[in-house]
Write a structure and sequence with these properties.
Blueprint (H helix, E strand, L loop, with lengths): L2 H15 L2 H5 L4 H12 L2 E12 L2 H5 L2 E3 L11 E11 L3 E11 L2 E8 L8 E19 L6 E21 L27 H4 L4 E2 L5 E14 L4 E10 L2 E10 L1
Antiparallel strand pairs: 1-3, 1-11, 2-5, 3-4, 4-6, 5-6, 6-7, 7-8, 7-9, 9-10, 10-11
Length: 249
């Protein structure tokens, strides 16, 4: 091999060692650090929550001239639930929650809109909603411990319990033309004698599963490195206001 040929081979090897493909395989340690930092920005949270709930009276008023309400005559209405959330890149959060809401109401005469007063039925409402809701939330991080947020979601709800209505029999103190609650119908305990004055109960046909729409406004407080507290209110087929607490990591 001549000296010129050997020199040419040497130049070729040097060129390969400095080719663009070889240079692209270089890994910047700072890039790895930045990538790891991006992964660390994801966080997870598990909370238990407690809420006061109420079906808005104005919604019931759209279909009934007379009706009972939540939080009436000593009735209390609360919802209990848990939620697991994934907060992506500190930009938005996805949460999956399960709740049970007690929507029972005291017995009372219910009168459908445009019906004559003596068509009112004594109605007992003993139902609750077991909901599974997937929601998205958007946060505004005011500082490291306080973040107001807004969100919404959808899901199904299983109806638990029943609604029974009792039709007053003609000729009894509870059936009088021109009025839905004649004098002498209701006793001192606030309820009528269902056996003496009314026909047997008729169970209302309520769908076993209902769609749920969730709209939420709230504020998140990071009370410690792994502790979180939330105050929230909104609408989830009923009005709610409550508190949630749990852990984050």
């Amino acid at each position: 091999m001549s000296k010129i040929s050997g020199f040419a081979i040497l130049l070729a090897l040097i060129g390969v060692s400095y080719s663009p493909d070889a240079h692209a395989q270089y890994v910047d340690k700072d890039d790895l650090a930045r990538f790891d930092s991006e992964l660390d920005r994801d966080s997870f949270m598990a909370t238990a929550r407690f809420r006061a709930v109420m079906v808005p009276p104005f919604l019931l008023g759209l279909a009934f001239d007379e009706h009972a309400n939540n939080w009436q005559d000593g009735t209390t209405n609360f919802a209990y639930g848990v939620e697991f959330s994934w907060r992506r890149n500190q930009d938005f959060e996805i949460g999956l929650a399960i709740d049970y809401a007690d929507l029972s109401m005291p017995g009372q005469f219910w009168l459908a809109s445009d019906d004559p007063p003596d068509d009112a039925d004594w109605t007992t409402v003993d139902i609750g909603l077991l909901s599974l809701v997937l929601s998205s939330y958007w946060f505004w991080d005011v500082n490291e411990w306080f973040s107001p947020y807004i969100g919404g979601g959808i899901g199904p709800a299983l109806v638990i319990g029943e609604v029974n209505k009792y039709n007053p029999r003609p000729g009894t103190p509870c059936r009088s033309a021109g009025t839905y609650n004649p004098p002498g119908c209701v006793g001192e305990n606030g309820e009528p004698d269902l056996e003496a004055y009314f026909d047997p109960a008729e169970k209302e046909n309520i769908p076993p599963v209902l769609p749920v729409l969730n709209l939420t406004l709230g504020a998140r407080f990071n009370i410690s490195k792994h502790g979180v507290l939330k105050l929230e209110f909104g609408f989830q087929n009923y009005l709610f206001a409550g508190i949630a607490a749990g852990g984050q990591w």
